[in-house]
Amino acid sequence: MAETLTLTPSAAKRIAWIAGKQTKPAILRLSVEGGGCSGFQYKFDLADAPAGDDVVSETDGVKLVVDPISLDLVGGSVVDFVESLGGAAFKVENPQAAAGCGCGSSFGI
């Protein structure tokens, strides 16, 4: 499994904008929780700082951090920000996901 994570420039720009509005550092935490219609769901939060055991990826000065347990489920993923007629959202392209749901926020391994 690749333990790399990629944050697209589009996602980095949106995170920087959100962090600026909330006067927080431009650090997005991606974690995985049990639940959702496919077994696991992605959770996004702004973080104040990376934890000591986090894997950190950086794009355009914006950091994406993931804890080791979640990394087992999202290693190799690309986090993007997409806007369409249906709305705007962060999207995870997870090569480990064997199943997903229509909303794109949950997945199965």
UniProtKB/TrEMBL annotation:
Chain ranges passing through the membrane: none
Domain Core: 5-104
NCBIfam families hit by this protein: iron-sulfur cluster assembly accessory protein
GO BP annotation list: iron-sulfur cluster assembly
InterPro entries to which the protein is assigned, alphabetical: ATAP (IPR016092), ATAP_core_dom (IPR000361), FeS_cluster_insertion_CS (IPR017870)
Pfam families per the UniProt record, alphabetical: Fe-S_biosyn
GO function terms (MF aspect): 2 iron, 2 sulfur cluster binding; 4 iron, 4 sulfur cluster binding; iron ion binding
The protein's name: Iron-sulfur cluster assembly accessory protein
UniProt superkingdom: Bacteria
